[in-house]
Amino acid sequence: MLARVANSLFWTGRYIERSEHLARYLKVQYFSILDAPMSQNKDFILKSILTMYGIAFEADEPVNEQAVLVELGMDSGNPNSILSTVFAARENARSVRYTISTELWEVINQYYLFVKEYPTDFYKTRGLFDFTINIAKHCAMVRSYLDHTLIHDDVWMFIKLGMHLERAVQIIRILTSKIHDIEVVTDNGLNFPLRQYQWTVTLKVLEAFDMHRRINKTSHTQTSTFRILIHTRIFRDRLPLIFRK
Amino acid sequence: MDEEKGLFHEYSVPSGLLDEVFTAQASTHSAYSLINALFHSLSPADFKKLNEYAKLSFLNQGITYAVYDESSNGTEKIFPFDLFPRVIRKNEWSMLENGLIQRNTALNLFLKDVYSDQKILKDKIVPSSLVYSSPHYLEIMRGFSPVGDVFCHICGTDLIRHSDGNFYILEDNLRCPSGVSYVLSNRETMKRTLSDIFKMMAVETVNQYPTMLFQMLKSVSPRPVEDPHCVLLTPGQYNSAYYEHSFLAQSMGIDLVEGRDLFVENNTVYMKTIRGAVRVDVIYRRVDDDFIDPEVFRKDSMLGVKGLIRAYLAGNVTLVNAPGTGVSDDKAICSFVPDMIRYYLNEEPILHNVPTYICEREKDLQYVLEHLPSLVVKPVDMSGGYGVTVCDRLSQSELQTLKVKIKSNPRNFIAQPKMLLSVHSTYIEENNCFEPRHIDLRSFTLMGKDYTYVLRGGLTRVALKRGSLIVNSSQGGGSKDTWVVAE
Question: Which of B185, B258, B273 to mutate to test the interface with A (most CBs of A within 10 A)?
Answer without folding.
Answer: B273
